[in-house]
Amino acid sequence: MGTSHNPQDGYRRNPLALTYGSEVVAPEEMVLPSLRVQAYHPEANHQRLLKHLNMVESRREVAMERIMSEKAKVATSYNQKVKLRPLEEGDMVLKRDFQKKDEHGKLVGTWEGPFLIREKTSPNTFHLATMEGIPVSKMWNGMHLRKYHTDVV
């Protein structure tokens, strides 16, 4: 094991250092000794490791905070691209037909309808009915519905 360095140097950000709390000595440094290997004193190194042992948990916490921060940035970026589709009871919608694509290939339209939203059970879950009022058997997630516009230009 190598000597301890200033934690601000950034070398302790690797997984091995977070797990074991010390730096790795590369095999090349053993063949051609570097200053770090030549200046290694086992007793002084042991004392530094004991001193920094309490800091291992805080370094793990810092790493976890960094991971959570990155996840939050990714989520924010993703959520900016999400289109909200405010659908309400009584709206006319098209629903995605998953079987049509499987049966007829990828160039066939995958939307069918229109259907009426019969009931909104949660913010993005809907019960549908045909235009004649016949209920559709399963519930639909809003991401598989598209608002049907009757405006003809």
UniProtKB/TrEMBL annotation:
<protein>
    <submittedName>
        <fullName>Uncharacterized protein</fullName>
    </submittedName>
</protein>
